Amino acid sequence: MHKLFRTFHVTVCSLFIFGPAYGNEAPKPWTLAESVDVAPVWAGHPVSFCLLTDGDRQFVAYYDAERQLTVASRRLDSSDWTTKVLPTRVGWDSHNCVTMAFDADGQLHVSGNMHCVPLVYFRTQRPRDVTSLEPVSSMTGKNEDRCTYPRFLTGARGELIFTYRDGSSGNGSQIWNVYDLASQTWDRLLDTPLFDGEGERNAYFVGPVQDKEGTFHICWVWRETPDCATNHDLCYARSRDLVHWEMSDGKPLELPITLATAEIVDPVPEGGGLINGNTKIGFDADGRVILSYHKHDADGHTQIYNARHEAGGWTIVQASDWDYHWDFQGGGTIQFEIHVGPVSITDAGLLVQSNSHAKQRGGRWQLDPVTLKPVGPAPQEPGYPTGLSVIESGFPGMQIRRASDLGEAADAEVRYILQWETRPANRDRPYPGAPPPPSMLRVHKLVRQ
What we know:
The protein is mainly beta. It is 0% helix and 45% strand. It has no helices and 33 strands. The chain is globular. Mean pLDDT is 91; it is low at 1-25.
């Protein structure tokens, strides 16, 4: 199984309506075994929270009803939470996610509430004890004044790595740090940024995703300005150790990677329908990497495409056949009308891909393993129990938010998710009038019978 290392603090899950089963029996459904209230939380706008299950304990990071960043923990056999309110408060920016990770000594690392601001970072003084979280003013002391998109991940040797963007949309570089357990200090994993926009642009990347052979894969788009329509050029790189990077043909890449030196998979121009946040990495049964994304076709309709690395280079195949043009543009956090899922392999060996569309029928299709073209609807993937899709708030326009677990339960047939409700994104600006009342943040325990 291909493993996505802890690069994403939170996944906000969309509930897809899938097509009928195709060819094989669908997997067993998830049922709700338990719901545990965490706390009332800020509901005025969406911003990603974090859930981390570690052994017999569970940790949640969120913005409370007063917008304060808060970290809570509990034993899995208890509904009582121990909390620590941290000295940072979210405004209206949906970029200001929060993420967490443990080091090998059991110390909890927390970072978040950053969009082009100085580093916000906390670390426990006692293993797994959230009450001992304390601010840490810096990691390396360099390039920490305009931080965004904090991410913790695990390196090839099990080391804790932290990456973030230094700069702004359209003018930023990607910084990578590595944690030293003995000294409890951070140093640069890379002597230079992984990507460098050269003061003209920045890279929005996805990954690293590790394949079954241990190689890390990333893909990214370049963006010229804060206007999301200026995304262009889908690119790719891979590495065995997250330090030395190469192209798909094995040619070494000199760091930092720039627009001129990057391997461009699909040269989508600005305004061509490519957007950050909707590029995904998957693999076929032979372990070949597949990049999924969308762009406009020759008629201006926005379509999903899959690019697979083959012997002769990249083969690009259109997967959807929609007659709708998604005209996204401008700055701030936008609401996505199309969602692209990575190509994956089911337990039955089928090559499948999920998607959703605000105007057209989405779902899950099966792909031909040779041509990558859709051949019909795929087996229905078990969704969440229907009761979890009921909005509790009576405030107009509320939506359900979810965060997947960055850790994992000891039982493979158990899954935990975090759920709450907020208003939709508003391009990082306040809504007029009074905000909605706080919503209840809950951890749901799902089991497969």
